[in-house]
Write a structure and sequence with these properties.
The protein has 231 residues and is α/β, with parallel strands linked by helices. The protein is built from 9 helices and 10 strands. It has a single domain, classed as Rossmann fold. Its main location: cytoplasm.
């Protein structure tokens, strides 16, 4: 924990499976605390987008490793959320395509990709006051984060949320999304490099029956308790 003037700041790690609401919650928490929000999933999506554009197959580990080293990924705050730049191009919307979504787990399993991005993420958090979400933040990227939250929800609820977000616009059925999310859970949990697991010292929040605002408020309260204890 670090003191900035008379204010103590910490790093908050929010992990969890696909569709649990991590990014939305993390953004709200950062806004309420005046912290910096870092969407690590967007960084992996940017690598995936570039690989697909350049016809680098996600399963070609060697080629993907070399390709990742050439990329410049920058996160910037925007009027309606975080903006993602890939080699100077705004790819904020492009990285949310269905094609990227279906390939990002394979890319994220690449050891070199994770090493390159993890180094970037740690540098962003070195001055504290960061809310970072992903799948291995509390276990690998920021193992010393002062507050760790594992945010989850049922597969059915996560699929329903994703369906409301993209289902109608992309012509995907709820059943398809349930199968894809369950498959992604399996890939994330079984990968050899930094698998999706709940850190031993993380607080588990099941958001199945909670609103985004309720989850954000719970995490803000937890952070304020931690800060009060540090004074």
């Amino acid at each position: 924990m670090q003191q900035d003037g008379n204010v103590f700041r910490m790093n908050i790690a929010i992990d969890g499976p696909a569709g649990a609401g991590k990014s939305t919650v993390a953004r709200k928490v950062a806004g309420q605390l005046g912290y910096i929000y870092i969407d690590t999933g967007a960084m992996y999506r940017a690598v995936t987008l570039s690989a697909l554009r350049n016809r680098v197959e996600p399963e070609n580990s060697a080629a993907l490793s070399e390709h990742a080293k050439t990329l410049n990924i920058v996160l910037r705050p925007g009027e309606h959320g975080q903006l993602v730049y890939l080699n100077g191009e705004d790819v904020t919307d492009l990285i949310r395509s269905r094609e990227v979504t279906l390939s990002v787990s394979q890319v994220a399993a690449n050891e070199t990709v994770r090493s390159v991005l993890t180094d970037m993420q740690r540098k962003l958090a070195q001055d504290k006051g960061v809310v970072m979400d992903g799948r291995d933040i509390g276990t690998s990227v920021l193992p010393n984060a002062e507050l760790k939250v594992f945010l989850t929800a049922s597969v059915q609820e996560r699929a329903l949320r994703r369906y409301r977000e993209i289902g109608l616009s992309q012509g995907i059925t709820l059943e398809q999304l349930e199968k894809e999310i369950a498959s992604r859970d399996k890939l994330d949990a079984e990968r050899d490099i930094s698998p999706l697991v709940c850190a031993d010292d993380a607080i588990v929040l099941d958001s199945t029956s909670m609103s985004i605002d309720e989850v954000a408020a719970a995490i803000v309260n937890l952070s304020r308790t931690k800060l009060a204890e540090a004074k």
